[in-house]
Q: What sequence folds into this?
């Protein structure tokens, strides 16, 4: 027979449970010991860190269809910013913030691209970093997310409601839109249509607030531009010539919009359809991010 | 002949006079203002002097442009300062064909057995001296050549015959000799399949030449930098013109990794030309250099055993090996299928100033590029098989004692 055991009531523990922790990304109430938000899947460590700062971090949303290169771009961006000694720099906050950088860099150094990001928000990579601008003491707390392109596509098309994507769009104060230039060069319009749809979706948020998306910075980045010198030389002109719909939409809807070209690797396609990075030569990676950060209101 | 330095000095002098006039005008304005002269007089002077300033600047700019164009037009056709001074270049018409070839760095043609016997002793000595000054010997032997599509833990051994490789990558100045000698207009120098596409190999102004040149010439400050913006065909044509060829993958790897056969039959190879540890002070890579090309003679501390500069870093180097050659069947798996490029690709080696990872800037790392690509970070160096040199260790009239001493050495 099991003897009865009397446990003392730990009231302070109950008090912890009584006070919910509000997710930084989606404002959903979670228990204090939750590892990730029950609604959007963002790591609660992000929220705990955000609470610890006087000024809450500012969020930048990264938009792009599957295969546009979001993971590679963000991973390389963070690695570049972390290795810099002058100009704009970034220091990761929290171990979870280094995962994306580690994943991308390890893959690329082995001449492989990182695997496709899962549609499950729990598997997305989140980054919280302290960005040092070149001016003394000018720092910003910035949160970046690497959402799955599939999930984003489904949400934008209205097929599946993704609370995480919804929350990202609502919370962000700047956007980085990635357009795969190889699709544009091949004559396809899918990349352009996706960008227009995403930006249109973004522009619908915060209409009643004082700060609307029309006044927030939007950087349109043509990715995989290693083989397109025309785009590298004049991205805005390239957008006018090859993605005129996107260029016109951006200029009509957003007052702070800029076009960039970026490439991380020179790659080739194998007979089995697999893309292989032949060598890593980052180009134009930091510029869009720097432009966004400098254009964001405090 | 235009003297660029003299023109610059004149421009600077006129600029100084203009600045002095502007300063005087500024003083006059201040004095006028202090003496309560009508403000209108003073303010009317301002746009006049501003206009003077602008006109002066425009004149200086125009003079500089004229001088630059004249300098390009009258640039002495020299590949090396100590080989031919401008006065010698003026007397080019008096040079014999072998002398002209030496001046153009085409000494490799003169050391061949068919030619060398027809030359004077002095010319033979000169061409042989140039050969050793400009090229390093890579001895025969096996080398393990890793490929991006093979298992790099056990790369296959390849036999390499003795070969000479250029100590430096081909510079803009050297390539300029090829351009002004009409290299782009000589179909015999080019691969047959690309002759119809020669008109595409133009610079920013449409003149024949590397992609980033202007008016058929290179920017003055980049004379000793490696030539970039050249396709594989342009590199191969230049190599033919100077009597050499592009090195194959195995030759290039052997020159840098300098393999030594160990007792158990395996090869001990260096990862970098200077050893097995990355030392960023010895090479121009991402984060260790100026983020652009540097002169081909820089980073002397990073030379290979045979004295080759910048095998790693600065620019990738074209080789003659096809990049899409399928690896041996036993290594061919579904995941390592060869690439399918619309245009054939050639292997490139060595890494460049913008190569990010140390692991991709080693003697063993292989990358590839389309043969028609004219990239900002791909250059080349040439090779010459030792068997093509008539007398590799030629010395003019050696005494018996010298010959014996050399043989012993």
A:
């Amino acid at each position: 027979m099991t003897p009865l055991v009397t446990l003392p009531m730990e009231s302070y523990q109950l008090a912890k449970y009584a006070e919910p922790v509000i997710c930084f990304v989606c404002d959903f109430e979670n228990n204090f010991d939750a590892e990730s938000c029950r609604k959007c899947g963002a790591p609660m460590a992000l929220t705990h860190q955000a609470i610890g700062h006087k000024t809450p971090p500012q969020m930048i949303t990264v938009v792009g269809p599957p295969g546009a290169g979001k993971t590679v771009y963000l991973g390389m961006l963070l690695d570049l910013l972390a290795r810099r000694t002058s100009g704009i720099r970034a220091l990761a906050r929290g171990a979870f913030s280094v995962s994306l950088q580690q994943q991308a860099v390890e893959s690329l150094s082995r001449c492989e691209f990182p695997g496709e990001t899962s549609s499950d928000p729990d598997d997305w990579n989140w980054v919280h970093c302290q960005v040092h601008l070149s001016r003394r003491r000018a720092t910003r707390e910035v949160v970046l997310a690497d959402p799955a392109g599939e999930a984003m596509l489904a949400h934008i098309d209205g097929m599946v409601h993704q609370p995480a994507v919804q929350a990202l769009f609502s919370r962000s104060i700047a956007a980085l839109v990635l357009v795969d230039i190889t699709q544009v060069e091949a004559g396809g319009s899918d990349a352009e249509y996706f960008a227009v749809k995403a930006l249109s979706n973004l522009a619908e948020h915060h209409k009643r607030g004082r700060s609307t998306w029309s006044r927030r910075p939007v950087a349109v980045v043509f990715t995989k531009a290693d083989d397109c010198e025309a785009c590298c030389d004049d991205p805005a002109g390239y957008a006018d010539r090859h993605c005129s719909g996107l260029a016109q939409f951006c200029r009509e809807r957003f007052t702070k919009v800029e076009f960039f070209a970026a490439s991380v690797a020179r790659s080739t396609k194998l007979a089995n359809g697999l893309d292989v990075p032949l060598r890593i030569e980052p180009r134009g990676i930091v510029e869009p991010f720097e432009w966004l950060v400098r254009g964001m209101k405090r | 002949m235009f003297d660029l330095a003299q023109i610059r000095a004149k421009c600077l002098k006129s600029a100084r006079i203009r600045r002095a006039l502007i300063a005087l005008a500024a003083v006059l304005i201040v004095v006028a203002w202090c003496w309560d002269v009508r403000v209108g007089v003073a303010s009317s002077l301002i746009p006049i002097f501003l206009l003077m300033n602008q006109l002066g600047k425009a004149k200086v700019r125009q003079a500089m442009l004229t001088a630059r164009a004249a300098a390009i037009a009258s640039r002495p056709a020299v590949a090396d300062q100590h080989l031919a001074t401008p006065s010698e270049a003026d007397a080019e018409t008096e040079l014999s064909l072998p002398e002209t070839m030496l001046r153009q760095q085409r000494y490799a043609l003169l050391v061949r057995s068919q030619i060398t016997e027809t030359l004077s002793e002095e010319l033979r000595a000169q061409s042989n001296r140039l050969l050793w000054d400009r090229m390093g010997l890579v001895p025969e032997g096996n080398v393990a050549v890793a490929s991006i599509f093979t298992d790099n833990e056990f790369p296959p051994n390849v036999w390499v015959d003795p070969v000479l490789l250029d100590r430096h990558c081909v510079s803009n100045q050297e390539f300029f000799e090829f351009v002004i000698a009409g290299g782009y207009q000589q179909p015999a120098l080019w691969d047959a399949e690309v002759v119809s596409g020669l008109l595409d190999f133009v610079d920013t102004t449409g003149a024949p030449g590397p992609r980033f040149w202007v008016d058929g010439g290179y920017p003055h400050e980049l004379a000793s930098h490696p030539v970039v913006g050249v396709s594989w065909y342009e590199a191969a044509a230049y190599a033919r013109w100077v009597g050499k060829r592009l090195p194959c993958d195995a030759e290039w790897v052997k020159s840098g990794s300098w393999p030594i056969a160990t007792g158990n039959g395996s090869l001990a190879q260096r990862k970098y030309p200077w050893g097995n540890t990355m030392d960023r002070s010895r090479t121009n890579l991402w984060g260790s250099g100026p983020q652009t090309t540097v002169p081909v003679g820089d980073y002397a501390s990073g030379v290979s055993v045979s004295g080759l500069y910048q095998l790693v870093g600065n620019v990738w180097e074209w080789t003659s090996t096809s990049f899409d050659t399928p690896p041996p069947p036993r290594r061919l798996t579904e995941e390592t299928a060869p690439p399918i490029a619309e245009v054939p690709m050639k292997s490139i080696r060595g890494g460049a100033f913008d190569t990010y990872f140390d692991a991709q800037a080693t003697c063993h790392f292989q990358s590839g590029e389309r043969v028609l690509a004219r990239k900002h970070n791909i250059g080349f160096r040439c090779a010459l098989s030792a068997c093509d040199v008539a007398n590799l260790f030629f010395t003019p009239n050696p005494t018996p004692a010298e010959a014996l001493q050399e043989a012993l050495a």
Q: What stands out?
A: Chain B touches chain A at residues 148, 286-287, 316, 334-335, 337-341, 345, 351-352, 354-357, 359-360, 367-369, 373, 377 (CB under 8 Å). The two ends of chain B are 50 Å apart (CA to CA). Residues 47-52, 71-90, 325-335 of chain B have pLDDT under 50 and may be disordered. The first helix of chain B runs from residue 4 to 34.
